[in-house]
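Dataset card, provenance and construction

Sequences and ligand SMILES were collected as paired inputs. For each pair, a complete structure of the chain with the small molecule in place was predicted and serialized as structure tokens. The example below shows a pair involving zinc ion. Curators did not alter the output after generation; any descriptive sentences attached to a record were derived from the structure itself.
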Amino acid sequence: MSFSSDTKEELCRVASEKPCCRLSELGALYMTLGALSLLGRGQLSVQFTVESPAIARRIFVLLQKEIGIIAQLHYVSHARFGGRRKCVLTVGPHQAPALLMRFGMVDALPDAPPSLRATAPRVRLTRDCCRRAFLRGALLGCGTLSNPETSYHLEFTARDEALRLNIAKCLQSLDVPVKQTVRRGVASLYVKQSDQIATILTAAGAHMAVTTLESMRVRRQVLGTVNRAMNCDNANLQKQMDASEKQLESIAALIQSDRFATLPPALQAIARARTQYPDLSLEELGATLSPPIGKSGVNHRMRRLVQLAGEDLGGQDAPQT
Ligand SMILES: [Zn+2]
């Protein structure tokens, strides 16, 4: 299960007790997953095409509780959906007008077929509770979330402009700035900050998802700190190895030039220690001497050795007089 589908499963379990909120959530679900069919002779039906059985159940219950409609459920498997099985909930011609009337999409005249007034539900997003319910429906219908272990990304894929405006309005009331992008001709609204994603999920009622998001965020921060520290250690180690390499080259040059035997015993001792222990740090190298010497003492002698070797090379290269 992905973070996205886990979050949707959780949203499907959020209690929706107020009629105003149930209608608002249904409105978002209709705008994202619903379709209107004209059956001829003024008859209408509504279909919700849904990928997850949990969301199909959610819509079924909302329709039943709020409007008293029993939708028909069947499954389709279509090449258009990549061969995946989808659930289709159908509200037939006898019940569709009741739903569309609640959405403000049809006029109901006695003894006349319903006449279509609008192609999108008129949702009232004046109350906080209804805006949260609309966001929940939009997340269920067209939301995707990336796995917070790798990135923070929440996106609403919304072809319909009215839907985008409604989502933007809800996000605005939460002080969440939203960005828009168009991919393959389809517009999306997206948010990429973990705290803003948490605000949206909290508003929609996905509290477990927020907890997961928060703990992942902390984990990523800790891992980031550890990685930075390790990179820093690696850089130091590399520096130490480069220095050791240079010292070994100098010592080898001194031995080759027969100058080594003329060096003061203290320099010879540290040179021998370095040849024997090429991987030790200066501090560790100093500890192998008897008597042991400190890091700055080792550093001083090493510099002297490198310098002498440099002079030697310079002497060899210098023209003979
Ligand atoms: Zn409400």
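Derived descriptions for this record:
The chain has eleven helices and ten strands.
The CA atoms of residues 243 and 294 lie 17 Å apart.
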